[in-house]
Amino acid sequence: MATSTNSGLPVENRPGRSSTVSTDGSRIGWITKGRGDPLVLVHGGGADHSRLEPFADFLAGRFAVHLVDRRGRGMSGDGESYDIELEYDDIAAVAEAIGQEVTLLGHSYGGPIAIGAATRTDAIARVIAYEGWPSLSGSPPSYEIGDAAERIQALLDSDGRDGAVTLVFRDLVGLDEAQLAEMRSQPSWQARLAAAATLPRELRTDPTIQMAPADLAAIAAPVLLVIGSLNESALRPGAHRLCSHLRDARVHVLTGQGHMAFDTAPDLLAAAITAFVESTTPSVGP
């Protein structure tokens, strides 16, 4: 049986937005769009809930979509020190505040957070991780970051938030100048600047996120790992290794897509989410 993280802590509710308190006392906030089965969206690194807000419109006719601000940005507080396990607790607390049979969707850095949260509470009925999940305990780092975190921190210390965010997407993600210009034109760019202080810690943490096979096996919720076909050759082996330790897991490939199907094919991703929810019966408890 998963343990409760929220322990009766108060939930703050205002029209369209809510919050609850995580295990370390940090308040975690979210907004809600639509009505229906509860679906929590957990954004990736260097952003806030607004990154996925346009995509929520593709789901709001079928789900009550809850868009969380992860700790350190927007509606959510932060602790004095950082550990990704606190983020597992955060999302578990949100799921418990919303109620039973919550489906989680985590994108990129939010993917392993969604999977980790499922080890904390029985309120999570299903987990969808889109191109982001932990490696197995004892594995080497999934990639090397060199001195990128230090370079980003130096830019932040000189109030160069735009340069810090640009460095991530140009040097690490590999976007060209035209793609960067498109990103800067989006409303979410300002949210990325506001969340820039979280980049160094998440960049250092991301390649080292791991879970033990026993913890994965304890997850009762069905799990869907989503891969864009453009990244399938790189990501499928790790996805299959993870699936071999989960009770109920499968891989879904988005044809013709990469890491950003929220933007490039939102209808295709929304259809995959809906089909997974409607085809699975959540398990509760061990």
Structural commentary:
By secondary structure, the protein is of the alpha/beta class. The chain folds into 2 domains: 12-137 and 209-279, Rossmann fold (3-Layer(aba) Sandwich), CATH 3.40.50; 148-202, no CATH class. It contains 12 helices and 11 strands. It has helices at residues 53-56, 84-98, 110-117, 148-157, 161-172, 177-184, 188-194, 199-205, 213-217, 232-243, 261-264, 266-279; strands at 12-14, 17-21, 27-33, 37-42, 63-68, 102-107, 124-130, 135-136, 210-211, 223-228, 249-254. The strands form 2 sheets. The chain has a 9-stranded mixed β-sheet, with helices on both faces. A two-stranded parallel sheet has the order 8-9. Helix 1 (53-56) links the parallel strand 4 (37-42) and strand 5. Helix 2 packs across helix 3 (110-117). The chain is globular, with a radius of gyration of 18 Å. The relative contact order is 0.14. Residues 3-10 have low confidence and may be disordered.
Q: Could you write a compact summary of the structure shown?
A:
With 286 residues, this protein is an alpha/beta fold. The chain contains 12 helices and 11 strands.
